[in-house]
Each structure stands twice: as C-alpha cells, then as structure tokens.
Amino acid sequence: MKAAWYDQQGSARAVLTVGEMADPQPQAGEVRIRLRASGINPGDVKKRQNAFGYGMPFARIIPHSDGAGVIDAVGEGVAEDRIGQRVWCYGAQTYRPFGTAAEFTVVPSEQAVPLPAGVSFEQGACLGIPAITAHRAVHVAGAVAGKVVLVQGGAGAVGATAVQLAHRAGARVIATVRSEREKEMAARMNADEAVLTGENLAERIQAFAPGGVDHIVEVAFGANIHTDVDVLAQGGSIAVYASDTSTPQIPFWLLVFGNARLYFVGSDDVPAAAKQEAARAVNQAFAAGWPGLEIAARFSLDEVARAHEDVEGAGRAGRVVIAI
Fold it and tell me: Which pLDDT belongs to residue 318?
C-alpha cells in the first residue's frame, strides 16, 4: 500500500516519507478500512514534532488517528457483513503505530463507526478526535439540559462540535469567537449567543448569563482561566482539553471559594463507553441535519508534509484533510 510515515521526530519536510509498505491484515476483533480520507488534528502534528516529550513509541509511525473509507476485510470474530460498509474511524494511531495517512488502516471493530448516508468521506475523516473530545468535555460534569454552557473557541473543530452537542443536549450555549465570520460559523452550529473575544469579555458574557455560567468547555486554559472564574456560577464546572501554556497559573482561592469543579479531558484516554456514546451522538446529529465541520484545505497523500505545515501555521478555523 501507499503510505506516509516517519521513523524519527522533527519538522514535517525533514521526517515525513511517502512510499510503499505491506498491506496490513486485520487480527481478531479488527477490521481493515480502505481509506478515502484522512483527517489531521493538532495532536498528530505535535506527536510528529515530539511536542509532548514522549519520544517515538514505535520504530515507525504512520500518522493521523482519524479517517473514513470502506471496510474491505475483517478479522476473526467480526461479522463478515461489515465488509463493504462505509465507516469513519477513530483511534487508529492511539497507542498503535499505523494510523490513517495510508491506503489502508486496521482498527478494532468498535472504532469503525457506520458513516451516515449523505455524509462524505472527507467529513467522516474530520470526526474522531474532535467528536470524542467535544462530547466528553460537554458531558463530563453531568447533564447540561437547562443549563448555560460556555464554549471557549466555539469555531474550532472541538469547539464547534461542542456547541452542536451541547445544544442537542438541551443547554443554552454561549460561544466565544475571534471574528464576524466565526460568529456565523458558531450560529450554524446552533450557538444561542456568539461573543467576540477582546476587552471586557467577562462582562459581555455576563450580559447573556447574569446568573453565571454552569459549565465551560475550555480550549486555552492558561489564557482564559481568569475570564472563566469571573463568569462561572457557584459550584460550576470547567472541562479543559487544551492550553496555550503547559504550566498555567490559576487563581486558586477564587476557584475554591466558587466550589468550582475542574476536569481535564484527553481524547486518547476517554473511557471506551464514553467514546462509543460520542460516536452515537455525532451520528444522531447528522441524522438531525447537522452539516458537520468546515473543511478549510485538502491535500493529496503526496502532499502530506505541506498538509502538516498548513495545520501548524493555520490561524483560521476549518479542518485539513488528506484525500487518499
């Protein structure tokens, strides 16, 4: 099969190789997917850069955890009627060496989710990490029906999905965004209010939630924690999945006096049952008419280094996908 891989970490152009590898074969409980699209997440880029300092967990890595395509082979214990099924997958490169930047990938059967009719392979390739992260971040502190949920960064992949899922769960959703265009994007995701970041952000959020925000989905913990504390209701909760700094300072006593609850969400280690619930919720959103995430750029597999650089340098919303 044709695949992209790296044998050492570093810059995209220095370490990413495109070439031929043996086709993978599904083991017991697994399916093989003939991929049509591969989605690139910031975490895929950071793993290749060694931004987390974990080094190379495997001697060779095919990057990207998310993808979509058609099941063409199954392992022992998997029903053969799965062959031919259109699917989107998650976790292909989570504690596994070979992800979706290739013509084929192999994943446990439960991680290959039926792709709803009418949803493109490219859209399917955008779902895994954003969907799991967003769903967990929205629901980790409990039910949000009838509550006010603030989504910081409501036009990003995780943020936009969180806005949609919180809306579908019955919350009143406020999203923060960086531009008028992102305001429109948040509105398409069914945000009740979209607030531009900038001066007096807390006061402008409080205008829409005078009783305080019950739950916050947070993308930039270090930069936003003071705003979060200012708007959080007594006993409220924050689910953080990313930070602008690895060692953020927090207003400890204000969090204590507010009886705040703080949750950290890492998509790789979300419980399996929660991942499956996230997959169901996203497919239900599509069935109800959700348009999915905006795709900002498309590349071929031969252009994988350029695609990684696009993710690294992107200052705009929208997903980057590889067409296989």
Answer: 86
216: nearest Cα among 171, 274, 268, 155? 171
Question: Which CATH number applies to 2-127+293-323: 3.90.180.10, 3.40.50.720, 1.10.3210.10, 3.65.10.10?
Answer: 3.90.180.10
The whole-number pLDDT of residue 46 equals 94
Distance between CA atoms of residues 322 and 37, nearest Å: 6
The class (CATH top level) of 131-268 is alpha beta
How far is C-alpha 17 from the geometric centre of its chain's CA atoms? 25
* Residue 70: strand, helix, or coil: strand
Going by their DSSP bridges, the two strands 17-20 and 2-5 should be labelled as antiparallel
Say what the pLDDT of residue 313 is: 85
This prediction has a pTM of 0.95
* Closest by Cα among 224, 219, 225 to 258: 225
Question: Which residue positions in the chain have pLDDT lower than 50?
Answer: none
